[in-house]
Amino acid sequence: MKQLKVTIEFITDVLGSSPSSETVYRDYVESKSPYKNTTSEEIFLTSVDEVTDKGMTIFPKDKDGRPFFWDYQIRGFFKSACGFLRRCKDESFSKASCKMTAYKKVIDGCIFVEPRQIFIDLRGGQIGNCQRPLRAQTAQGERVALANSESIPAGSRITFIVTVMSDAYEKAVREWLAYGRYTGLGQWRNGGHGRFKVLSIEE
Fold first, then answer.
1. Cβ-Cβ contacts under 8 Å for 85 (sequence gap 6 or more)
2. What is the band of 99 on the pLDDT scale with cuts at 50, 70, 90?
3. 177: part of which helix (H) or strand (E)?
4. Which pLDDT score is estimated for 67?
């Protein structure tokens, strides 16, 4: 088992992905969940990309107003990065990822992130917002909605611990972190938001 202390710095602004209204979480989760009793935290942790046009998306904050990422968001990024890197077979930058089988189960059971709340160091910057139109072709014609998200500026940093239960997966974790330079965290990643570089990995 190995623990890696990781510090990353965002090279583009990052957009919040949590709806500002708790009722949006509850309505969405209750419509999808097979369970009758869903805890408030489970509601808060739900992916909400499908309800972007129902209100502004934000960063979760503690009682002092400090924005943070949840630990599960980093693990979700790991799954996404591994899935894409596995398509780059025979490349030196993806060898460890390509060797992993059942990678989602490996990340769920063998790779852990802490602390639970990963606070964002704004480095003197401020939370802003980003508005952009969303367009979709429907049977009734083109549909346009305005999406609005909180944003944290490029240069902001986060530090977290990655616990790898088997040393065999360490190289893969390093590949995923390096992949953050191309696709990172938060909303509108395909627009280049949320990309980051690794400042340090301490063992």
1. 93, 94, 97, 98, 175, 176, 179
2. very high
3. helix 170-179
4. 93
